[in-house]
């Protein structure tokens, strides 16, 4: 049997806080990024969700769906989106296979520790590149948190 860590609420909050910090520096002429931030467990079940001021209601559902796709695949969603748009349109069928809302759009990144997916982060509400930049910055901050977990 192999043991793995499960994300705890305080860890989820630290990951979301890191995304909030990244949203402050990845805004536009209207101010800080208006995004929703979701963290899910390895099965794609919601652990935490914040919708920043000004973020659209649709961004909340989309952030969850991005995080779910990243968690269930154990892969970032941006390359999946590129593959769907180019050489692998069949990947679009994954959401139907999962039986729950999941999308391959930039902004979903799995949280990997010791080769195991502990869940994923999803960011939605701005352009694909802005969503991805916020998700990557938050994931980088989360990496430090995951290192604290030990082997």
Oligomer designation: single chain
Mean pLDDT, to the nearest integer, reads 88
Number of helices: 5
- The helix-strand sequence is HEEHHHEEH
CATH superfamily: Haem-degrading domain
Largest sheet: 4 strands, antiparallel
Number of domains: 1
Distance between the termini: 15 Å
Give the low-pLDDT segments.
none
Q: Examine the coordinates and then state which fold CATH places here, giving the name of the CATH topology.
A: Beta-Lactamase
Query: Roughly how many Å is the radius of gyration?
Result: 14 Å
Total strands: the figure is 4
CATH class: Alpha Beta
Features:
151 residues; alpha+beta; Beta-Lactamase; 4-stranded antiparallel sheet
Please describe what this structure looks like.
The chain is α+β, with helices and mostly antiparallel strands. It has one domain (9-148): Haem-degrading domain (Beta-Lactamase). It contains five helices and four strands; from the N terminus they run αββαααββα. The protein has helices spanning 9-25, 57-73, 77-85, 94-98, 128-148, and strands at 36-40, 46-51, 108-113, 116-124. Helix 1 packs across helix 5 (128-148). The longest helix has 21 residues, at 128-148.
Can I get a quick summary?
This protein is an alpha+beta fold and 151 residues long. The chain has helices at residues 9-25, 57-73, 77-85, 94-98, 128-148, and strands spanning 36-40, 46-51, 108-113, 116-124. The mean pLDDT is 88.
């Amino acid at each position: 049997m192999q043991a793995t860590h499960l994300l705890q609420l305080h860890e989820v909050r630290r990951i979301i806080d890191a995304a909030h910090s990244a949203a402050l520096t990845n805004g536009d002429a209207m101010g800080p990024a208006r995004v929703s931030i979701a963290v899910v467990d390895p099965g794609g079940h919601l652990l935490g969700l914040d919708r920043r001021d000004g973020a659209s209601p649709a961004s909340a559902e989309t952030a969850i769906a991005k995080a779910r796709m990243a968690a269930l695949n154990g892969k970032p969603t941006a390359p999946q989106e590129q593959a769907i748009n180019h050489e692998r349109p069949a990947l679009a069928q994954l959401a139907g296979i999962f039986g729950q809302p999941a999308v391959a759009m930039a902004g979903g990144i799995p949280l990997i520790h010791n080769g195991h997916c502990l869940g994923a982060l999803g960011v939605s509400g701005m352009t694909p590149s802005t969503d991805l930049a916020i998700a990557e910055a938050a994931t980088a901050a989360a990496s430090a948190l995951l290192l604290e977990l030990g082997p």
